[in-house]
């Protein structure tokens, strides 16, 4: 004869808490390692430019790079290399852990709201124009065929170093990738993340013997129009880089 078990209130609570814990664990794993596809950006279609692999060693120590880091606004009228561009982009947002797709800059919830563009004006073996970085492939795809440095300088209240630099790195943000998990607090997390990426660019520039400065004073909507950004992308930084 089978006995029918009657659960006590305590047992129901224990089972319920266990189920909630399991659901929370699954949710955490899902959002950390198996994020929904809509959280991953779609990059422009077109010819991809495979960038040189990033160098993982340098003659400049991290301590020396921190010591020598400065905001530099005067650049020589000389080209930088495609390897320089690749190294700067990797330092900003490159993949550093292939399995989990972790990037060079920390991100709240590993949601990665930032996108990275390069306005190229004076780079060896690279046509002028605007390129979007794809960190997952370490490639760039050209989005515009025109040199926009002069227009960006005007949008940045006439800061001439934006025009004179060999390249301008533009960091944009899709706030919704972070705010849909963290609410309005996510806006702060996005800005913190942009700062991490910008500091990486500074330190990498020191290692490459290049000069750079972060620019935050510009007309947002004008920059969006110049770069033809998607509606959900908002510019946070313009970062000129050049020979010194």
Examine the coordinates and then state which fold CATH places here, giving the name of the CATH topology of the largest domain.
Answer: NADH Oxidase
Beta strand count: 9
CATH homologous superfamily descriptor of the largest domain:
NADH Oxidase
CATH architecture of the largest domain: 3-Layer(aba) Sandwich
How far apart the termini lie comes to 89 Å
Name the poorly predicted regions.
24-39
Major β-sheet strand ordering: 1-6-5-4-7-9-8
Structurally, how many domains make up the residues? 2
**Structural class designation:** alpha+beta
Strand content: 15-25%
Coarse shape: globular
Helix content: 25-40%
Topology:
Layout lengths: L8 H25 L14 E3 L11 H7 L13 H12 L1 E3 L4 E2 L10 E7 L8 E6 L4 E6 L4 H7 L4 H5 L2 E7 L2 H7 L2 H23 L2 E3 L7 H8 L6 E10 L1
Antiparallel strand pairs: 1-6, 2-3, 4-5, 4-7, 5-6, 7-9, 8-9
Helix pairs in contact: 2-7, 3-7, 6-7
Would you summarize the structure shown here?
With 244 residues, this protein is an alpha+beta fold. It has helices at residues 9-33, 62-68, 82-93, 149-155, 160-164, 176-182, 185-207, 220-227, and strands at residues 48-50, 95-97, 102-103, 114-120, 129-134, 139-144, 167-173, 210-212, 234-243. The strands form two sheets. A seven-stranded antiparallel sheet has the order 1-6-5-4-7-9-8, with helices on both faces. Strands 2-3 form a two-stranded antiparallel sheet.
């Amino acid at each position: 004869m089978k006995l029918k078990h009657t659960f006590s209130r305590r047992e129901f609570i224990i089972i319920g808490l266990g189920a909630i814990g399991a659901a929370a664990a699954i949710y955490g794993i899902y959002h950390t390692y198996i994020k929904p596809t809509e959280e991953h950006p779609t990059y422009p279609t077109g010819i991809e430019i495979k960038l040189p692999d990033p160098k993982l060693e340098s003659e400049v120590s991290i301590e020396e790079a921190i010591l020598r880091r400065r905001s530099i606004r005067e650049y020589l009228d000389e080209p930088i290399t495609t390897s320089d561009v690749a190294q700067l982009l990797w330092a900003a947002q490159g993949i550093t852990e292939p399995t989990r797709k972790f990037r060079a800059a920390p991100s709240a919830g590993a949601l990665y709201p930032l996108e990275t563009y390069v306005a190229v004006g004076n780079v060896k073996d690279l046509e002028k124009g605007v390129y979007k970085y794809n960190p997952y492939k370490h490639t760039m795809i050209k989005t515009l065929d025109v040199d926009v440095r002069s227009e960006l300088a005007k949008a940045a209240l006439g800061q001439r170093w934006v025009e004179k630099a060999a390249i301008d790195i533009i960091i944009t943000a899709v706030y919704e990738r972070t705010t849909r998990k963290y609410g309005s607090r996510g806006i702060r997390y996005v800005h913190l993340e942009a700062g991490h990426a910008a500091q990486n660019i500074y330190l990498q520039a020191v290692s490459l013997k290049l000069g750079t400065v972060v620019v935050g004073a510009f007309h947002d909507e004008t920059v969006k129009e110049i770069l033809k950004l998607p509606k959900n992308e908002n510019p946070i930084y313009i970062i000129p880089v050049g020979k010194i």
